[in-house]
Each structure stands twice: as structure tokens, then as C-alpha cells.
Amino acid sequence: MIASVAAFKMLKTRKNEKLYTFHRKALFLGLIVGGLFSFLTALNGHESAQLLYEYQPEKLAGAEGLFETQSHAPLAIGGFTDADSQEIKGAIEIPWALSFLAGNSFDTVVKGLNDFPRDEWPPLFIHTLFNGMVIIGSVLILFAVLALLYRKILKRDKFPKWLLFFLYLFGGPLSLLAIEFGWIFACTGRQPWVIYRMLKTSEVVTSSGSIGTLFILFAIVYLILGIATVIVLTYYFRKKIRLKKTYG
Predict the structure, then answer these.
(1) Is residue 72 a contact partner of residue 107, using CB atoms and an 8 Å limit?
(2) Who has greater pLDDT, 9 or 95?
(3) Measuring CA to CA, how many Å separate 103 from each of 28, 72, 75, 96, 110?
(4) What integer is the mean pLDDT of 157-177?
(5) Which ranges does the record mark as transmembrane (predicted)?
(6) Which of 9, 106, 224, 232 gives a 20 to 30 Å CA spacing to 215?
């Protein structure tokens, strides 16, 4: 988000060298820190896959759309899981990669969904969530690499408008979307369990009839808070502009 705001300000202040330089530093810092943590997250993902392989194998199988237990299991990128045909349609497969990801060996046997009762499968759309999270993380790393290329290797003082535009338009929203994809994947992927292998969601879900009312009330509260935030920020920004025009 910092990089997106900085990119927007750079597009607005290209003729003001002092302001442009200030926002360029913010952009560069945001991209480098964001890119670094995206890369570290990718490395951590390898360890997470191994933990899933050991403790929640059906979640790993659901994330990769793997139905049959096998060694040399492929890693599926993209596509959509089809439960009827038991395949991922439109995916690009990297041979043997899932086995290596799960156990640091191409011979690692990865359990497929068919080894588990159908009512214990996680929702199969978690494959799409997982891929979305990974793809967005890769794009953010690419943005950071491009910034490093332009600034440190090509020694350019100004970033190209197209790069700033894409950073402003996509960088911040995509980063938030990746976070949401990750949370939904983590929480939905463990279904149907609340406590793995001990307690199912269906056994603890409330039967209260007031859930709908509470949801509406909470939605109203957050709507009011959102509107109030916009009003307050708009007021202060307009006040700042008036003071700037008055006192220079």
C-alpha cells in the first residue's frame, strides 16, 4: 500500500523534483521491503507445505487438486478443480514438483483426496485461492525487481509512467487481496474440522436464530464507521489545501 500511494504521488508530482524525490524514496523502500518479505514468504511456504503434508494431508491435496496418491506428484499452477472428472482443468503442471515440495524428494508419496472420506474433503476451490496468493506474491516480487533494475542498475532518476501506473492501480489492492486469499485458504482449507480430527464444524455451529440480525447490526456499525472516516479525512485534506493556498 505504501508503494501504491507513493506511485500515485509520483505521477502527480513529476514536475516537482523535490516532492518527486521524496515519494521515490518511499516507493523504493516499500517495494524493496515488500518484495523481500514476499520472497521470504515464498520460502516459508515450502516449510508450510511440509507441515501440511505431515499433519493435514487432505488440505495439501485439496490445494493442489491431487486426487490419487502418488510419488513424483506434479505441482498444478492455475486451472480449476473439477470434482466430477477428478482433475484440474486448464492447469499448467510442473512434473514431480509437489513431491519435492512436500518431502524434499521427488520420490515422496503424496496422499490424494481419494484416500479420505468424501465428507472430509476441504472445499476444492481452495486450489484457486492458493494459486491466487502465490501468483500475486510473484507479481509483487517482480515489481520490486523492476524497481531495483531501474534505480540501481540502469541508474534512472525517474520511473516510467507505465510502471508507476500499474503499481498505483494494482500493487496495493493486489497485496490486500493476497492477504485475504491466504486467510480464507487457511481457514476454509481445514474444513470440515474446527479441531482437526476431533471436532467438526457441523458439531459446533450455533443454532441461534438471531445471527442474521447481529450480522446486519455489525454491518451497519462498520458502515457508519467507514462513512465517518471518509468524512473526517476529506475535511482535513480540504482544510490542508485551503491553508496551503492561504499561506503558501
Answers:
(1) yes
(2) 95
(3) 37, 11, 13, 11, 9
(4) 77
(5) 124-150, 162-186, 214-237
(6) 232
Q: What mean pLDDT, rounded, does the chain reach?
A: 85
Could you tell me how far CA 40 lies from the centroid of its own chain? 14
What string of DSSP letters covers 30-84? HHHHHHHHHHHHHHHHHHHHHHHHHH-HHHHHHHHT--S-BSSPPEEES-EEETT
Residue 178 has pLDDT above 90, yes or no: no
Q: Could you tell me whether strands 199-200 and 193-195 are parallel, antiparallel, or unpaired per DSSP bridges?
A: antiparallel
Contact 18, 159 (CB under 8 A): no
Q: Which pLDDT score, from 0 to 100, does residue 41 have? A: 79
pLDDT at 230 over 60: yes
8 A C-beta contact, residue 151 and residue 26? no
- Give the integer Cα–Cα distance in Å for 235 and 238: 5
For the chain, which residues make up each domain, given as ranges? Answer: 2-205, 206-248
Partners of residue 49 on adjacent β-strands: none
Which of these ranges, 23-32, 51-60, 102-111, 173-182, has the smallest mean pLDDT? Answer: 23-32
